[in-house]
TrEMBL record:
InterPro entries: AAA+_ATPase, ABC_ATPase_HisP-typ, ABC_transporter-like_ATP-bd, ABC_transporter-like_CS, MetN_ABC_transporter-like, P-loop_NTPase. GO terms for cellular component: plasma membrane. It comes from Ereboglobus luteus. PROSITE patterns: ABC_TRANSPORTER_1, ABC_TRANSPORTER_2. Belongs to the ABC transporter superfamily. It comes from the Bacteria. This is Polar amino acid ABC transporter ATP-binding protein. The keyword Membrane applies. GO terms for molecular function: ABC-type amino acid transporter activity; ATP binding; ATP hydrolysis activity. CDD domains: ABC_HisP_GlnQ (cd03262). Keywords: Amino-acid transport, ATP-binding, Cell membrane, Membrane, Nucleotide-binding, Transport.
């Protein structure tokens, strides 16, 4: 490893606020994600973790602040007004560079596993069918589901469906993967298979932002853990620091409850 290497900021969030009516859900978030990092976001329910991820994808618009992705200004707003606005094609290119996996698997129920994987690459990226199938088959091997290629989602377990959802996100060849509590809707015995797929991705150097309640995953895989509470980033640092010597009282209280 070179000591002169400069970390490359992939996501930069500056002073981001988000209101839903009078409710202020994000209260001035400052956060960055560097290339090859695995950032795990932890914190109590309702602290704004999902909202923050959704703002990175235009699923929600920020109220004010600035988001830069790959060094390019992606969103900049003041009082719900655009200071910088992307064109529709810029938004779609941007969203294609981010893969998102939700708590619920959101697979297309009327399509086979293969159909789910090739749909977006063909429609959005205009990949030809043979290439999309080849890519999908490789990804199914990677998530351990090569034998489920022609199955419909309803015939798969929750863990298998979530692994298909991960493969489907990867089929768009994103530069960053965002996960919003990908295992919290699963039966406990199915959690491990999904976490293992995510661990493999991290080992391969994928840049990831993972909202999770799986503290052992955060401890083992995160390069940085971010603790959010009540719309704020309260504390962040390497997992060994956050889990063994949290500096903030709110972090300590939260960890006491979940560890
Ligand atoms: P977390 O993911 O940390 O549990 P969320 O980002 O889902 O938190 O929610 C943060 C707060 O924002 C909660 O109080 C939630 O009720 C509120 N909220 C989230 N989405 C909406 C919405 N679309 N409209 C109004 N309030 C919302
Ligand atoms: Mg959430």
């Amino acid at each position: 490893m070179s000591f002169t290497a400069v970390s490359e900021k992939i996501i930069e969030i500056k002073n981001v606020r988000k209101n839903f009516g009078k409710l202020e859900v994000l209260k001035g978030i400052n956060l960055h994600v560097d290339k090859d990092e695995v950032v795990c976001i932890i914190g109590p329910s309702g602290s704004g973790k999902s909202t923050l991820l959704r703002c990175l994808n235009y699923l929600e618009r920020i109220t004010s602040g600035e988001i830069t992705i790959h060094g390019e200004l992606f969103d900049k707003r003041e009082n719900d007004r655009d200071v910088h606005k992307l064109t529709a094609s810029e938004v779609s290119a941007h969203c294609a560079s981010l893969g998102m996996v939700f708590q619920r698997f959101n697979l297309f129920p009327h399509m086979t596993v293969l159909g789910n994987l090739i749909e977006a690459p063909m429609r959005v990226k205009h990949m030809d069918r043979a290439a999309a199938i080849a890519l999908a088959e490789n990804l199914l091997v990677k998530v351990g589901l090569a034998d489920k290629r022609d199955e419909y989602p309803s015939r798969l377990s929750g863990g298998q469906q979530q692994r298909v959802a991960i493969a489907r996100a990867l089929a768009m060849q994103p530069q960053i993967m965002l996960f919003d509590e990908p295992t919290s809707a699963l039966d406990p015995e199915l959690v491990g298979e999904v976490l293992n797929v995510m661990k493999d991705l991290a080992t391969e150097g994928m840049t990831m932002v993972v909202v999770t309640h799986e503290m052992s995953f955060a401890r083992d895989v995160a390069t940085r853990v971010v603790f959010m509470d009540k719309g704020e980033v309260v504390e962040q640092g390497p997992p060994q620091e956050i889990f063994t010597a949290p500096k903030n009282e709110r972090t300590r209280m939260f960890l006491k409850k979940v560890l």
